[in-house]
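Thought: the user asked what GTP:AMP phosphotransferase, mitochondrial looks like in 3D. I have the sequence; next I should run the structure tool and report back without guessing.
Action: structure_tool
Action Input:
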Amino acid sequence: MLKPTRLLLLGAPGSGKGTISKRLLKKFPQLQYISSGDVLRYQIASGTTIGIKAEKYLKNGALVPDPVMVRLITDQLQTHNWLNSEASWLLDGFPRTSNQADQLNDVLDKYDSNLNLVVELDVDQKVILHRIESRYVHLSSGRIYNLDYNPPKVPFKDDVTGEPLTKREDDNAEIFQKRLDKYNEKIGALREFYQEQGVWRVVSGNTSDIIYPQVEKLVNV
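Observation:
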């Protein structure tokens, strides 16, 4: 494994970043983990000021503004003391814009903790939209299920707690297409930002079983 590993996973909403992250964490337990989605959900569920603001954007299929996301993720890195040159960690889903990347890079550079691997998950977006229509989530943990290929053991119940699963308000084709459109608008500049740093890689496939071995190979060098 890269030592230290400072890995960013990127991909369109619904591309499977969370699933790939979990498999990486199981394979490489020394990796620490921050999911932008988990951070947002925690803030929303806690009813914080920043969570209330973020929820309004998400319900309309919009991205949370850059200053809000940069603050959230930077605070998480500092809280866990991961801003040092020896820590190994994985960012899931952040940054999503070149502006966020530039701001994050400024923070990491001060601590000699710059990213050394950025992997984009390239998944057919028609497949993503079909997948979203069948997706349910256990809100308090963030565990995600899909009725087609990753169903819960008991229909519409979380495998661990037995609590009811929920369909997120933004998990429908119309709203999700807006999120995909915004991702497509931003990814070009973000890709170029990390290509210039020499850390950008792309893996392609429509299932995690196809994508994951490619990601593991990049990490396990």
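Thought: the tool returned a structure. Summarizing for the user.
Final Answer: Structure for GTP:AMP phosphotransferase, mitochondrial predicted. Residues 6-126+172-218 form a domain with the Rossmann fold fold (CATH 3.40.50.300). Strands lie at 6-11, 32-35, 89-92, 117-122, 135-138, 143-146, 200-204.
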